[in-house]
Amino acid sequence: MNPISKRLRLLLLIPNLGLGGAQRVFHDHSVELAKQHNVTEAVFNEEGGNIYPSGNEQVSLGVGGGGNPLDKVRNFMRRVTRLRQLKHRLGADVCISHLEGADYVNLLSKGREKVILCIHGSKLHDANIRGAAGWLRKKILMPGLYNRADRIVTVSRDINPELIDGFGVKSEKLLTINNFFEVAQIEAKAQEPLTAAEQAVYAAAPVLVTSGRLSVQKNQAPLLNSFAALLQHMPVKLVFVGDGELRNELVTYAQNLGLRVYEAWHAQPLTPAYDVYFMGMQQNPFKYIRPATIFVFPSAWEGFPMALGEAMICGVTVVTADCPTGPREILAPTTTKPLTPIRAAEPAAYGILMPMLNQPTTLSADLQVWTNTLANLLHDPAERSRLGKLASQRMQDFTREKIFRQWIAVIEEVATQ
């Protein structure tokens, strides 16, 4: 297909531009699409600020959230009305929405413009979709509205069968385009040296590192249990890079396990005397990942996890829960999702897939698998080196150039239908 000759008017919609993986992807899309088309960003409101500014025009619909059920309905309808007006004013050719709330507003405000949805994560396994609102989303909104889209782009292949079987989405609407990574940029940032105090921590013992929001989705609490068991047998450190709503809960949980905890947000000296290090949000997380011994990723569910891919770019051995969706697609691309969750470590082409740590009936055994696997890897530098090199090679499949050729093609195809 030949590229279209004119610059399209693209409207990108997301609820907010605060902290989050979807917001990072939204920023990357905005920057890249603006090279070929006219891009305007729209948000429901400016709560949370703009963590990832793109330099493109941004419009706020100026509608807050929260309140009682009636307030929520009113705000929802205001968003639909204001987005419809914005689409008309801009003469938008295509509106691409990121995250579910934006998808509904995008679909219900649809006019002459084409609509593309970008689905960032599993819907069937998202523990945040619960209660009466969750029932409404799963039983009414997604089945009733998603087929109105001109195209639905998922970030992982394993999201597609969920949408088809669970929500009745037509298969011809679906296309998978994985997230892309700024490989060279991440490799360069990863070379930034640690401070002398940080270097002392990394030199004191092997370091396990994990990166991401401190949240229910990332499921970090069981990792602390496995780490505490590992610490009984060998010296090791655990470093958390990131912040989130479970910060205080996780710190308390670690302390109750008898672990010595460093908290970067407190005025305490950074020394090797601690077991667990909460480093908080970092402008450059990669400098903490590259010198680590193993990257650990215990998520309960994902989409196409950016933090996992970034760790692989840094050349670190990765040990990840085989959660829906993304890790298996990245680490074991020639395999398919197992019918039942794995209960043993699965050596994959580019890392190690592990049992999920969110099943109460098997949690004790699953934690033991994690502890044993990490211990074996910590004693096997040759295997870590091999897996780290393979991980880095794998991420060449997800460069900006390769992925965005697919995005440009689908946008221009939809625009000319």
Automatic annotation (TrEMBL):
Domain called Glycosyltransferase subfamily 4-like N-terminal: residue spans: 20-182
Protein name, UniProt field: Glycosyltransferase
Lineage: Bacteria, Pseudomonadati, Bacteroidota, Cytophagia, Cytophagales
